[in-house]
Amino acid sequence: MKGRVVATLLAICFSSSFCFSQLSDPSRDAFGGRGRTFDSPHSSSLSGIVLGTDGKPVSDARIEIRNAQMGTSIASGYTGPGGNFEFDNLPSAMYEVVASQGLSQSSQRLTVTEIGMTLTLHLSNGDPAASKADGNSMVSVAEYRVPQKARDAYHKAEMALAKNHPDEATKQLAKALDIDANYAPALTLRGVMSLDGAHFEAAVDDFDKAVHADPSYALAYTAMAAALNQLKKFDDAIRSADRAITLAPRSWQSYFEMAKAYVGKADYQHGLQQAARAQALSSTDYPPIHLLRAHVMLALKNYGDAMNELQAFLTLAPQDPNSAAARDALEKVKAFTASATAPSPANAVR
Prior knowledge:
This protein is α+β, with helices and mostly antiparallel strands and 350 residues long. The chain has helices at 4-16, 128-132, 141-144, 148-162, 166-179, 184-196, 200-213, 218-230, 234-247, 252-264, 268-281, 287-299, 303-316, 323-341; strands at residues 43-52, 62-67, 73-78, 84-91, 93-101, 104-112, 117-123. It has a four-stranded antiparallel β-sheet. A three-stranded mixed β-sheet has the order 4-1-7, with no helix packed on it. The longest helix is centred in the last third of the chain and has 19 residues, at 323-341. The chain is globular and about 75 Å long.
């Protein structure tokens, strides 16, 4: 499962770190705050089983529950010996349930209600060797050299984070890196945790170690771009994102980070191009991309498109922590455009 939890955390970090200065007029934009998941007054359970093409239960398959609208991860874990999984206290909503093991992946969308849901997912029986290598379709030489005990500790760190136990995750990552100090996914995951805690320099240090340990690990370059954007080192962020895209051409997160870097440099044309690529590759309509576009449209004084982008964000993510600032921005732009088009008192008909 190499990088799957890291990618999910990065998506959260990308969303939460996407912020601008407080809006005071329509030529400035603002979307502050940190995003995790939405809240719901109702919760339910979701259980199921993963079966292989031979009809037998698949153990140790990774299960991830995603918000179908925002694409963010709600919970994750692994199937038991009988291929079973169960998640409790899920808010009632539309979800995408993804099962994966090795090179095989299966997903299903469903609405979780207060009554609870059960489902069956099917996975193609894959090569056990691929599963041992954490499910990366292009396993590097560096990955083959990682001791199994380090991988096991890393997976425990993933599971701890999925259950919102960061202290346990930190402990397991330390164990993995004690076994293999050059284990790139573990270094990257530790860096992502630093990035989420706004410890940007520490994050950059871990990402730098990760790319030196395994130059083929694309996710580390994407994470590095995210941290460099936070530090306003936009040229460096573009180079890092470009390297990630070379290694993983369909990584929408890399294009999104590159878009943010170009926008940070006020190169709005290239920023919009990269944002469009990110949106095209994303499996869902990712709300923060609309915020990025709104920022560009406001900077270009294209208020009509800015309002459309803000409205698109609010439609997709009405309960996102950034929604209040987006609504405020939308109302200010509406008020500004209304006052700009209103006739002056001298020209008003008496």
